[in-house]
Write a structure and sequence with these properties.
heterodimer; A: Rossmann fold; 2 domains; 17 helices; 14 strands; 42% helix; B: mainly alpha; 2 strands
């Protein structure tokens, strides 16, 4: 079987969620099939500036074809269009303009996908919201397998994203909540889909003491790993933690691992260690009492799965349906919806060691059951083999773009209104 | 510390979260919904918690407004002008104007509106103070709760540490005969520190031991006087007879007496 993984950025040094996800999947599928990666020359997800050379290269044993981005993102234009399509009644042309302004605008990549249609059995597109996935899947719908990595944000409410969800050959979801959300938006129950997610390269024996010595940390730790960003809920986390620290003088110390976008508060119980290599990251997880996940929007939190893989409990934001659903299904973590719950849950985990250990053990069992590589690879291969055996449905066809006049008719409701209509809450299904 | 585990399969996150919410409700007293809290937080506090809006001369202004105003003066202000001709015309036409409207009421209404504004500001200030106090009380409650939990922890820790106290067999004197007071006194003397205060302390301990041993230590008819060496020896012997060297650690909560043995932790 010959596969093409199509993703917005690709590289060993790129650690963004969907990009890392794509790399892991490409590397693991490469053990069972002939895998190429089709991507852009961009390294930075804000500007999409061409930084890698155009052409073919190899990254960790996988062949990568890079195509140039024709236009860098204008943050101002993107912001203006986002405001229009998310909050005002608008036209399809506005949404298409929004998609172009979001980027990475690489017509060369889309042209190549269309031209190489016969070379590959399937194209696995990552991240539904980007230019390459929308136009790429439209070019080869009968061979397109979409990994949406969708979050509950405004983009999911845009009209232009219904056809890709309805017309690709199959969807590989990250969670039950993501699947329910996409089904609610696009009514695509007929399209084959499976909840897969992604595994992680978890070391056998991470060393907590090595981490403590290296960073001179003697206190008990609550750990946050990821981009330190208001969009990831870090502002709220800082406010909550400072209040908690005031009420619990002997409580946990918050350790932050990741690049800061938001300034880290100067507080004796908050330590920022910056971005760390994987070895230190897993050592930090091994040393932590609990992993904090304050994000409101997650399609799948890899770091949560990694914490569970090491038997650590998680305290997650209850406003994120995916995290709450996973905590409930795994019995591996607690969640909070406000400060009072945050403080109470954190104190429970801090003081009740046996309970924290039991939650961690449940998380570990959940990880083993659903997110180890043999399980993930098996789900991908099963789906691809099924698709290969069965003929493509009539619905898997190129979706039309409305005519010039139709495209400019401002009758499309704002995406925020669509988002409000999507049912909230963790999935009730247990079929994961 | 004894380690124990919760069975992982018996853990139910939904139940734990229910308990956590119940504890939160208990602490908060009133169970506001999240929407109510958001409404309270977003609608009013921002505005009230602006210290720039608190005026120091507020009370003086209030007093000025509250003082009975001179209506005539107010009328003067209403109909007066720096131009004589205009003033004259206004005063001349005043009776005609009074046929149509009541300027006195107008003056009162103006004054009343000022009053309302100031009352509103006073209310604002009250809310500011109440909010601050509320937050302060909440913080203090949390602090008390934290201190009490720390106290609980230390108490538990102390009890656990006392639970592992062992009496070193070599440090205990062999059981003595009540007829051999000199030997008992020598043994006591060897274990107790020197000096008058140490002596007093050991005497008090012996007295306590004697009391605790009840009828065993002091037989009916024995003297309760502990000043003499004979009575000291008899109390000490009764205590020693009650504590063989192989005896398991006692509950220290029930007895504060550690004078006759040394602590091994």
């Amino acid at each position: 079987m010959k596969l093409a993984v199509v993703v917005q950025r690709y590289g060993a040094e790129i650690n963004g969620g969907a990009e890392l996800h794509a790399r892991y999947i490409a590397e693991h599928l490469a053990r069972h099939a002939d895998v190429d990666v089709l991507t852009t020359c961009a390294k930075d997800y804000v500007t999409w500036r061409n930084e890698y050379p155009v052409g073919t290269t190899r990254v960790k044993g996988v062949t990568v074809h890079r195509f140039p981005v024709s236009r860098e993102r204008s943050v101002r234009r993107f912001g203006r269009l986002s405001d229009r399509v998310f909050h005002r009644t608008h036209a399809i042309a506005d949404e298409l303009a929004w998609l172009e302004s979001e980027g990475p605008t690489s017509p060369a990549l889309v042209r190549h996908v269309r031209a190489a249609r016969q070379q590959y059995d399937f194209f696995v597109f990552f991240s539904y919201r980007y230019y390459h996935a929308w136009h790429g899947a439209r070019a080869v719908p009968e061979r397109a397998v979409l990994v949406p990595t969708a979050e509950r944000d405004h983009a999911i409410g845009l009209e232009i994203f219904r056809p890709p969800f309805q017309r690709v050959r199959a969807l590989m979801y990250n969670s039950l909540e993501e699947r329910d959300m996409i089904r609610a938006v696009s009514r695509n129950e007929r399209v084959p889909g499976v909840v897969v997610g992604v595994g992680s390269e978890v070391p056998e024996r991470p060393l907590a003491e090595r981490f403590r010595q290296r960073f001179n940390l003697r206190d008990r730790i609550a750990l946050y790993i990821g981009r330190i960003d208001a969009n990831k809920g870090c502002g709220e986390l800082f406010a909550f933690f400072r209040q908690y620290a005031q009420g619990s003088p002997d409580g946990l110390t918050l350790v932050l691992v990741g690049d800061p976008v938001l300034p880290v508060p100067d507080h004796p119980r908050i330590r920022h260690l910056g971005s760390l290599p994987d070895e230190d990251k897993f050592d930090a997880l091994a040393a932590a009492e609990v992993l904090l996940m304050p994000s409101y929007f997650e399609s799948l939190s890899m770091v949560t799965l990694e914490a569970w893989a090491l038997g650590k409990p998680v305290l997650a934001n209850a406003h994120c349906d995916v995290l709450k659903g996973q905590c409930l299904r795994s019995n591996g973590g607690l969640f909070y919806g406000n400060y009072a719950e945050f403080a109470e849950a954190l104190r429970t985990l801090e003081r009740n060691g046996p309970l924290a250990r039991a939650l961690g053990a449940n998380g570990q069992a959940y990880f083993t059951r659903h997110y180890t590589w043999p399980v993930i690879e098996g789900k991908y291969l099963d789906m691809l083999e099924t698709l290969q055996r069965e003929p493509a449905a009539a619905t898997a066809s190129e979706w039309p773009i409305p005519g010039w006049r139709e495209r400019r008719r401002a009758t499309v409701p704002p995406a925020s209104r669509m988002l409000e209509r999507i049912p909230k809450g963790p999935s009730r299904s247990h079929e994961e | 510390m004894p380690d124990f585990n919760v069975r992982a399969d018996s853990v139910n996150v939904e139940d734990i979260m229910r308990q956590i919410r119940a504890r939160v409700r208990e602490k908060r007293g009133v169970d506001y919904t999240e929407a109510q809290i958001q409404e309270l937080a977003s609608a009013k506090l921002e505005r009230y918690l602006d210290p720039d809006k608190v005026r120091s001369e507020l009370l003086d202004q209030f007093k000025q407004i509250s003082a009975a105003p001179d209506v005539e003066f107010e009328e003067q202000a209403l109909f007066g002008s720096h131009r004589r001709l205009v003033r004259l015309i206004r005063w001349g036409l005043r009776p005609i104007l009074k046929l149509f409207i009541n300027p006195d009421k107008l003056v009162q209404a103006t004054r009343f509106s000022q009053h309302v504004e100031l009352s509103y500001e006073v209310l604002h200030n009250l809310v500011v103070e109440l909010t601050r106090l509320g937050i302060e009380v909440k913080n203090l409650k949390m602090r008390v709760e934290s201190l009490s939990s720390r106290l609980d922890f230390h108490e538990r820790r102390a009890r656990a540490l006392e639970g592992v106290v062992q009496y070193r067999p070599g440090a205990l004197a062999p059981p003595r005969s009540p007829a051999d007071p000199g030997a008992g006194g020598a043994a006591e003397g060897a274990r107790e520190p020197e000096g008058p205060s140490a002596d007093g302390r050991s005497r008090r301990r012996r007295r306590r031991r004697g009391r605790r041993s009840g009828g065993q230590g002091l037989q009916p008819g024995d003297s309760q006087d502990t000043s003499g060496p004979a009575s000291e020896a008899s109390a000490g012997t009764a205590s020693q007879a009650d504590e063989p060297g192989t005896r398991p650690p006692r509950d220290p909560g029930a007895s504060g007496d550690t004078g006759s043995g040394s602590l091994n932790q």
